[in-house]
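Task: sequence design from structure.
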């Protein structure tokens, strides 16, 4: 497994001051190492779980956090590894996967910027129950176990969001189990798209935009089918005017028509 690259945290703020702001609002990091390369700003308060931390708590996070960069298809977390910290996806896209006894990769869920992961093994003091793979080049923040557990027990805002996250995780896993129980492959694809539609829709009945659309192979892994089957299903939906597909996103033009296919 390729080794993660720890990115050095800069000691100055974007304005050139000698110190970063006391609350640790942003950390300049060089995401493309090399002389003269531009720096990217990591805004810690844009991470939902950390958004409401006190200045003292944020200073602790800034002191302990480590920024890591992974290339496409690198393994970010390995199943069976120790739960040594909490991780946040800052940029790019990740997929949580499990591997069956016969070697097939089964996609469990997708992760988008702002999402955190690795919390179950951390809370249970157990090993990782699944692997996490980069679907693109990604930047990840790693918070050591002691610091993360301190926030869980001492920060009301973090504890509240963690409870909400775990409740949503249970609901999402329940929906996904129901999806996998559908025998009809086409209907399984339509149901998967309908679940993605919920995330990209602002108002019921309006078009939904699914950004950073997974590849057809990644979708196939998620719902236990073949890449060719996913390609045919999406092509059929496009011909019916239900969806429009760009290079990296899917526009669900007729959400109600997609729902009829799911129900039918």
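Answer:
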């Amino acid at each position: 497994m390729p080794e993660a690259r720890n990115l050095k945290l800069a000691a100055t703020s974007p304005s050139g001051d000698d110190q970063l702001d006391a609350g640790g609002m942003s950390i300049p990091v060089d995401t493309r190492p090399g002389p003269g390369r531009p720096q990217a700003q990591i805004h810690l308060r844009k991470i939902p779980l950390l958004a409401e931390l006190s200045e003292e708590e944020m200073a602790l996070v800034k002191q302990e956090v480590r920024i890591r960069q992974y290339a496409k298809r690198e393994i970010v977390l390995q199943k069976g590894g120790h739960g040594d910290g909490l991780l946040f996806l800052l940029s790019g896209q990740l997929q949580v996967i499990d591997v069956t006894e016969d070697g097939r990769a089964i996609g469990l869920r997708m992760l988008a910027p702002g999402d955190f992961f690795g919390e179950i093994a951390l809370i249970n003091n157990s090993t990782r129950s699944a692997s996490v793979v980069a679907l693109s080049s990604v930047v990840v923040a790693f918070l050591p176990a002691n610091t993360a557990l301190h926030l869980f027990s001492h920060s009301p805002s973090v504890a509240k969001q963690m409870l909400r996250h775990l409740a949503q995780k249970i609901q999402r896993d329940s929906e996904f189990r129901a999806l996998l129980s559908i025998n009809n492959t086409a209907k399984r694809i339509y149901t998967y798209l309908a679940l993605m539609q919920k995330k990209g829709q602002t108002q019921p009945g309006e078009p939904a935009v699914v950004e950073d659309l997974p590849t057809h192979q990644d979708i196939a892994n998620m719902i236990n089918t073949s890449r060719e089957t996913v390609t045919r299903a999406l092509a059929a939906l496009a011909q019916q005017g239900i969806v429009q597909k760009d290079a990296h996103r899917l526009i669900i033009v007729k959400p109600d028509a997609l729902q009829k296919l799911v129900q039918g």
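The two ends are 44 Å apart (CA to CA).
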